[in-house]
Amino acid sequence: MSLSLASHSGEWIIKDKLGEQNRLVVLVVEDKPMIRMFTAEVLENDGCEVVEAASAPVALNLLEKRADVTALLTDIDMYGGMDGLETATLVHERWSHITLLVTSGVIPAGGP
Fold first, then answer.
1. Has residue 26 got a pLDDT over 70?
2. Which residue among 9, 21, 23, 36 is buried most deeply as judged by most CB within 10 Å?
3. pTM, 2 dp
């Protein structure tokens, strides 16, 4: 299975990384419920198994229990402690086999 995402530069990011069940298992970390649910639905419709977390601490706890996670998709700007960059850095240090996707819905001043 292949997961394809467009980056802000318009380039496609394509990653082939199958889990034990022959499918991608993506941990979505997003503090806004509607965005988290929409993201999960899009990924599930593309054939991924999705695990959801509303915060970095919840995500880290899930990763301790789920060895089958193959990718982490996290928002940069999260409330309540650790942001997405800190989360991605910690995940990379502890679980280097997990592919990291860090996103933001914030448009920088002056546009993309």
1. yes
2. 36
3. 0.79
The single-letter code of the amino acid at 26 is V
Q: For residues 112 and 108, give the distance between their C-alpha atoms in angstroms, rounded to a whole number.
A: 6
Q: At what angle do helices 56-65 and 84-94 cross, to 10 degrees?
A: 20
Average model confidence (pLDDT) for the chain?
A: 81
DSSP 89: H
C-alpha atoms less than 13 angstroms from C-alpha of 49 in its C-beta half-sphere: 13
90: number of Cβ within 10 Å: 15
Q: Quick one: 21-103 is in which CATH superfamily?
A: Response regulator (3.40.50.2300)
Burial of 1 (0-12, 13-18, 19+ CB in 10 A): middle
